[in-house]
């Protein structure tokens, strides 16, 4: 299943702010002056850097904007970027075959990193962890232990990790406040409440979609039809029971969630284009107020512009984010469908091509600390801020208030942060947002700080359940996803609850034939290994 964390882009500060609304918690201390110059000296150094993504391209030369120029002058570091030119997989394979790797790289956790470790191409980083303060302090020993290779060494530094006690997650439930008020602001918490409300919307607003979900055709209601589940359970097809992962398809709550969705679809209370419409089409409905209720993982992207277009504000939003709906009788406090892993998004590695790997590590250690994160996110001191508060959060100045927010990337903001310290940056984002005039504050930032982040589950223990170096399980997982997607569509289009049940029974048989038990056993072992790593 598609997850928001896999669709990040770093090409503009505007998108960075959307990306940063995936996170929340508190900042750490603001003092950090760790040297990132050559292995503890004040001598300038440079290193080559490759990002293994088709979509990522560094168009400017280092030193041509405020951020990189400040780093070059004050930290004596120059980065020479190597672009994939839209063919990342081929480019990486070519570099490996030619034994011509860059000094450092950013890439996804998993098979590519494992392949490089096995080929003895990466520098083990354990030797530097106690010498430089930030990586070990902010990422944490538990999270670093999860990144250890089979040989016991750490070769990876995570990007957009979450500090222990922090949070993250994307599960949005929002209501159109104009329609809601016009219908008398009824109680709207359980799925029984929701169904009754959608019937009222359908009867009174013929041009409005009563309930809209994320584009792409996936139905994410299962975690809210039972307690202590999240989207992660759907991604790995199961949930823990007696120290093993068992199939979610055998959980009565899964059948109930699909029967509910199918019933809403039959009654035309949910978009009839659920499986065919694009993200842009969903946004267009939202922008014109044609969605009464929205449920999905991408609400920040879908509804942020709509709230602005409909003249909504933080205090009086056009779309109000509410706690996820849940089955009547369940404990609301145990309904937290959003999911995150403290390991974050992707990782940085240093290759044995590097002449001074310690200097690169020192730079990355500085970069993930408070000073580095401030520079990457808000620019150097004197640009958009002149001082910080006691937590190290920048106090934005008048130049920032007057700046064109769509062009902040021209200063280098949001372009170079490959060791994102989610917890620090997100707290800074929330505090600085509150410094802005009411009409400039972010609807998404406020919504996530007050509701979205609180409705999430820390699923770090399951972060490596599908990491398959050999590829055999990966093939089975894709087969299961294909079966699941087709069966889900059939259940939504079913003509009755009994038909939904019959389709699910057929799907369960197909999944067994496709190797679901083998996948769950593999995931169980990986999960148990992660638990051991987290305990040290």
From TrEMBL:
Domain of life according to the entry: Bacteria
Keywords from the UniProt entry: Signal
Gene3D superfamilies attached to this UniProt entry: Periplasmic binding protein-like II
Regions that span the bilayer: none
Pfam family, one: SBP_bac_1
Signal peptide, first to last residue: 1-26
Entry protein name: ABC transporter substrate-binding protein
Organism: Tengunoibacter tsumagoiensis
